[in-house]
Amino acid sequence: MSELHLVRHAQASFGSANYDQLSDLGHQQSRLLGDYFKQRNMRFDRLIVGDMHRHHQTMDGICAGMGIDGSDRLVLPGLNEYNFDELTEAYGVSHGDNPLFQKLNDDPSDKKNFYRLLRQILTAWTEDSIPGVAETWVQFKTRVEDAHNQIKLLADDGNKILAIGSGGSISTFVGLVLEIPDENVFDLNLQYKNTAISHFFFNQKKMNLTSFNNIAHFESNEMEKFITYG
User: Fold this and answer.
1) In the chain, which end has fewer C-beta atoms inside a 10 angstrom radius, N or C?
2) Residues 138, 201: contact at Cβ < 8 Å?
3) Residue 47 maps to which CATH number?
């Protein structure tokens, strides 16, 4: 059986003009995960990333921590995140009277309201009740499924793969493996930690989840300061 370590990107730049880049803490998280892999003598036969800047930066940091080149990587856009800005804008047209939407407009840096509103937007999205979105939930799920299928085709005996994605794409990926109802997928999304690992054994026909949202590399008193969700 082959193995897949599917990692959420490190902390991005919440509240900045460009969210799609790692924060200073995010760069540290990436390097520390690479250090952890190196300490455990882990090696990967294939590196995969989504086509987002924070995905590549996270892989760069991991490879630096492991002391490997890491430039040979397969890009699978199916691991890219949904576009929250576009979803929020479309949601505001039809649900602009939502008090949480108004609060977030007043203070975009308020993470508590951000995540509360995000949960409502994602629920409406999976129910196809946000008109005018550039990518529907079905389209998003289909491209995640395409990444899932492409990874299964890479199965080889003993093959070990490291892949970097986003919280929404990884949660949808896990949902496909476990056959979770659409309305429950984003319960996983909103608890997924930065650089957390979901581990799978797989072949070309089937994939099995063996662990979810694992942050063993940060589970000590001195390392818990690196645990983030954004």
Assistant:
1) N
2) no
3) 3.40.50.1240
